[in-house]
Amino acid sequence: MKRKRHTPEQIVKKLRTAGEEQARGTSIDEVCRKLEISVATYHRWNKEYSGAKTETVKRLKELEKENARLKKLVAEQALDMDMLKEINRGKW
User: Fold this and answer.
1) Which residues of the chain have pLDDT under 50?
2) Which of 8, 21, 87, 89 qualifies as a FRET site for 56, CA 20 to 30 Å off?
């Protein structure tokens, strides 16, 4: 089966649909079958996105991406500084 990636907006929408279906008395297995996701995926999404609004989730993902980019920049700068210190000491 082809692996599908869902956007945060799609995930929030599917979780809302799942909540409505469960309120009607549908089991989690049936809800997951209707949403075309696994039960494990449902529980992981519910843990991560429970009660979140679409805008909040979108902003969170943007911040996580920016944070990863900044961490990479800091790591590269630390390597550059270390390299310059070694050159300055004459160990090359």
Assistant:
1) none
2) 21
